[in-house]
Amino acid sequence: MNAIRTSKQKLRKRMHSVLSQLSASALTDQSCRVAKQVVQLSAYQRAQHISIYISMDSGELQTRQLLYDALESGKRVYVPRCDGTFMDMVELQGKEDLESLPKNRWGIPEPAKDRKGVDASALDFILVPGVAFDTAGNRCGHGKGYYDRFLTGNPHLFKCAVCLNEQVVETVPTDEFDKTPDIVLAAQGVVFQSKSVNSDTS
């Protein structure tokens, strides 16, 4: 376990160095390419209750386009809120609500603590971030375990992980707590998809 933890820490450090050098134009271009793939998924098109993370300004695939698309298409959209070791989801009331969210200690917009969280069983699609992914669907997160715990309690969700091309690596170290997404999308295309969702990628 300690060896895996150490390997993950080294991977996160390496990826931070790589992603910090990515230009704003490259980030925007790749994010647009991934967004187009996401909205073409049958699972996305069917979904009515979608969780989409709000991205950091740099070093991470940008999600504003996806948030706007989901809101404009009439879907009910939820964004993460983290408190200690717990993560829940809060529904957005529209674009103005999104733009007015206060920023947390990491500088990421997040719903205030006094807003009511949603029952996670209402969700049917979740966009999953990460630091690194491999072609077997393994994911390395930021180390807090928020998504792994959330997905453990909500196995019914369609899990769509998204990343930049630079985040696709040969091997991601994993342990028994790591959850595999149903599909992993990068700007270069499908990185991984489970056998059960092959038909959802067209």
TrEMBL record:
Q: Which reaction does it catalyse?
A: (6S)-5-formyl-5,6,7,8-tetrahydrofolate + ATP = (6R)-5,10-methenyltetrahydrofolate + ADP + phosphate
Taxonomic path: Eukaryota, Fungi, Fungi incertae sedis, Zoopagomycota, Kickxellomycotina
* Keyword line: ATP-binding, Ligase, Magnesium, Metal-binding, Nucleotide-binding
Q: Which domain of life is it from?
A: Eukaryota
Q: Which NCBIfam families match?
A: MTHFS_bact
Give this protein's Gene Ontology molecular function annotations. 5-formyltetrahydrofolate cyclo-ligase activity; ATP binding; metal ion binding
Sites where the protein binds substrate: 54, 60
Query: This protein is called what?
Result: 5-formyltetrahydrofolate cyclo-ligase
Stated EC number for the protein is 6.3.3.2
